[in-house]
Design brief:
Rossmann fold; 32% helix; alpha/beta; single chain; globular; 6 helices
Length: 174
């Protein structure tokens, strides 16, 4: 299933969960999407994952218009905390949501969606360790591999990456 011509942004900061960034990155490229690695306002040009993999930041959220993208992917790891602190990044996510772009997040990355205020009354999943925080943000949390509610796609953990990426490609193909 190809998604040629679609543009996907992967939002990261230092200490991103390596596999949760690189697996979707290559899966989207394999499906023929154009993929950009996006940092927040204070990001360095190179960001280091929790397991040491380096990623080159191509753009930052303060110079991008989310209307340029068809999907935004947010991996987990400590990167989620750093992204949550950046009001410009949260505004970027809110605007993408308002434009009905696909917003996909996995593991602790779902916390960023909660911080952006877009999970109220949405059905989601996430890392079990943050489920109470997600519920406080107004979401209906469930323990399953992938949940899609409108334009929001969420998954629990690295082990759910195949289902997560399959759902993103499916959504981009519609």
């Amino acid at each position: 299933m190809g998604i040629a011509g679609k543009k996907v942004a992967i939002l990261i900061a230092d200490d991103y969960e390596d596999l949760e960034m690189w697996y979707p990155y290559y899966r989207m490229k394999e499906a023929e999407a154009e993929v950009h690695v996006i940092g927040n306002v204070l990001s360095a040009d190179k960001l280091k994952g929790r397991r040491g993999y380096m990623a080159d930041v191509q753009f930052r959220t303060d110079v991008l218009d989310p209307s340029q993208y068809d999907a935004i992917i947010i991996p987990g790891g400590w990167s989620s905390d750093r992204l949550s602190w950046c009001s410009v990044t949260l505004d970027f996510i809110k605007r993408a949501y308002e434009l009905n772009k696909i917003i996909a997040s996995i593991s602790q990355g779902v916390w960023v969606l909660s911080s952006a205020g877009i999970l109220k009354d949405k059905n989601v999943t996430s890392a079990i360790s943050i489920r109470e925080n997600i519920k406080i943000g107004g979401a209906n949390w469930t323990d399953t591999d992938v949940v899609r509610d409108g334009n929001i796609i969420t998954s629990r953990s690295t082990s759910d990456l195949p289902s997560f990426c399959q759902e993103i490609v499916k959504a981009l193909s519609e």
